[in-house]
Amino acid sequence: MKHTRIRTFNTKDTYPEQKLDNDLCQAVVARGSTVFLRGQIGQNIDTTESVCIGDVAGQAEQAMSNIAMLLKEAGGELEHICKITIYIVDPRYREAVYRVVGSWLKGVFPVSTGIVVSALARPEWLVEIDATAVIPD
Residue 4: its pLDDT value, please? Predict the structure, then answer.
């Protein structure tokens, strides 16, 4: 069985300033029920516009909104999330980001990993969040 790929794109369109040519997607539904989401950042998926520049909570809000939208497109919902990974570029952002994520995932209880990284793909991005969900049969 082939996996379902949601919102396919090529990196040469998404990152024109970088000389890349990779075929990727925002989400993959594997075996009909497991959803792997690409890391989401402070970017409007439909326009690829970076939003909330300088505002880590606003970027986290956009990332979680993207995750909710992609899960819906995959036939799931936030309650199906099993695992999230949160990448921040400054440890001082942790509290603000986790407050936003916590408000979106209240009562879900996913496994969570937080990582401080030196940078993300674009300098204006302060946080990136990826998720894995399993949609019940």
Answer: 82
pLDDT computed for residue 8 by the predictor:
87
Report how far residue 14's alpha carbon sits from residue 137's, in angstroms, rounded to the nearest whole number.
Answer: 34
At 35, give phi and psi (nearest 5°).
-115, 120
- Give 116's Cβ-side CA count (13 Å radius): 6
Tell me which residue has tokens 């879900």: 108
Separation of alpha carbons 72 and 1, rounded Å: 22
* Tokens describing residue 15: 């990152």
Q: What is the distance between the alpha carbons of residues 66 and 42, in angstroms, rounded to a whole number?
A: 9
What are 27-41's pLDDT values in tens digits? 788 877 999 999 999
